[in-house]
Write a structure and sequence with these properties.
Nucleotidyltransferase, domain 5, 5-stranded mixed β-sheet, 14 strands, homodimer, alpha/beta, 36% helix
Chain lengths: 325, 325
């Protein structure tokens, strides 16, 4: 009997649900804009309506519902704690609510961990057992697969590579996210422009410094603008230092880097790889290592949510995905 | 039938072997000084002689031989790569050599990982499933248990917390080990004395700056010497930042800190805990967290080597230790 999995992507801007088959092939998808401003009840009602739409006629075929959500959340209890981009969500027992509605096992995971599972199951890290996934957009999130299993930690809070403390000049503590995420790239560019540095970025935003974002910087860098190139190089360097930490702590076989900022390509990846080579303790950590862009696009959260359900919340080994049902 | 485990501690200064019962209780121990200067063959001959001494009459009772060794090493192949404090050891296939001599399963692990297993099995972290172990002595090593299993990574090189890049002053990158291990504490003290800072340390070494080590600094700090106290506080602060990284990446329930430098007690632990509180992303990472000194003394490597064999090289869950045979 063919089995089905229901996947939900609760994002800050989009709400999506999909049905997958047991090989994690997407069969049906529904999506809408998340009306976060209307509060959790409205969003959960919509989520339930979407789940019903993608549900097969025979619920007995469904092995579970996987949900990708912004953190912080507790994957053991399925409680969404207080995501910054879901205003009004405070200790929402999402797993309990969905379980009581559909009488199916529900697994909730934070979006970066779920994306790591997705890339390891169907993406750039398929077939790998030791995977570090990084996403660089408005923030920096990460997820880790160690020996085939998702690393969650005691309360599901692992692995927050974006927030590790890096000390800079004079003892000030910063983090990779504060130095290399999209807003940091834009801020660095803005500060230099205010200091009088010449750059094509100024023309791209018609002189409006507030309109600068990482996308604009990326566009200017692609045309060879030296300030924009330097801003991306700084971000790449800092992400590279974060990757060094990830290599030392997890000794993975692959680093997958996703998120909007990675659309800048080699302008980000080249300085990133350089920083890794320059600062790694020993070449044993980088021998045979692959540092690659994420392979899954917008569906990464849905694929990951399906993989989360298939691995029973990441507790089963990803190698079992092929013969799990 | 009662089972036995043979444990070997190949240290830079001591070579030890012991027999444990299936409850990881030490039954017999032999030890000698490691004559590293005589090369690997001599040391391995002595190791084999010691293993014979602690071996029970009936080898059928022995489930395996666990060996704690300085890294870098490959636990999958049992090859000792090139430990700085074992001169002459270069790609020594220790596991194969011992296996062919005794026809028993042999498991080799790096000393910090093995110590983590020991503290999780019989020490300060007994009963815990998410453990980070740090040892602070002439270097800083670490080992991690995630959801009951030793984190080794692709080639057994995880988890090197001491070497993560954490401080960048004017672009220079340093590490926790370079800032907080014993030699760093001594160096910091020496530099201050050379700059004319008054301190009781100078009397303790009778004016010989080269005689300063972390032990001397600890002794002066215990008497309230302000320079010595500051040197330990700086080390504690940097280790605290490393612990923040470990909390963010592994979300453990306990941090166990061992090694000679921790004999300085609260002079190191208080600034360490302060740094953790000051720099952690969210109190969810520290709620209920325990930061504790290691509980096992000199036998930590032997207990860990026995646990390594009992868990088949760390591949089995530590919770199975109670009913593993």
């Amino acid at each position: 009997m063919a089995k089905a999995i229901i996947a939900v992507d609760l994002g800050g801007t989009q709400l999506r649900a999909a049905r997958f088959d047991q090989d994690l092939t997407l069969l049906q998808r529904e999506s809408t804009l998340t009306r976060a401003d209307l509060g959790p009840k409205h969003t959960i009602d919509e989520m339930q309506a979407f789940i019903r739409k993608v549900m097969p006629c025979d619920r007995g075929d469904v092995v579970g519902i996987g949900i990708s959500s912004p953190g912080p959340l507790n994957p053991a209890t399925g409680v969404i704690i207080a995501p910054p981009n879901l205003p009004g969500w405070r200790n929402v027992p999402l797993s309990d609510i969905i379980t009581s509605e559909f009488a199916l096992p529900v697994y909730v995971g934070n979006d970066a961990n779920v994306a790591a599972l997705a890339e390891a199951s169907k993406g750039a890290a398929q077939g790998c057992r030791h995977v570090v996934y990084l996403t660089v957009s408005t923030g920096i999130g990460s997820g880790v697969i160690s020996d085939g299993k998702l690393v969650t930690g005691r309360a599901g809070l692992a692995a927050e590579l974006g927030h590790i403390p890096i000390l800079i000049d004079g003892g000030e503590v910063t983090s990779i996210e504060l130095e290399a995420a999209g807003p940091a790239i834009a801020r660095r560019c803005r500060v230099q422009l205010e200091a009088g540095v010449k750059s094509a970025v100024l023309e791209l935003v018609a002189g409006d410094l507030h309109a600068i974002d990482a996308k604009v910087v990326g566009a200017a860098a692609a045309r060879g603008d030296s300030l924009a190139v330097e801003c991306l190089a700084h971000a790449g360097h800092m992400i590279g230092l974060g990757i060094v930490t990830a290599l030392l702590l997890y000794n993975p076989e692959i680093i997958v880097v996703g998120g909007g900022v990675t659309k800048t390509g080699e302008l980000l990846f080249a300085p990133m790889r350089q920083a890794v080579q320059a600062h790694i303790l020993d070449s044993a950590f980088t021998d045979g290592l692959r540092i690659e862009p994420a392979a899954l696009g917008d569906d990464v959260a849905l694929v990951g949510a399906a993989a989360l359900a298939a691995t029973k919340g990441g507790r089963r080994d990803i190698s079992e995905l092929d013969h799990i049902f």
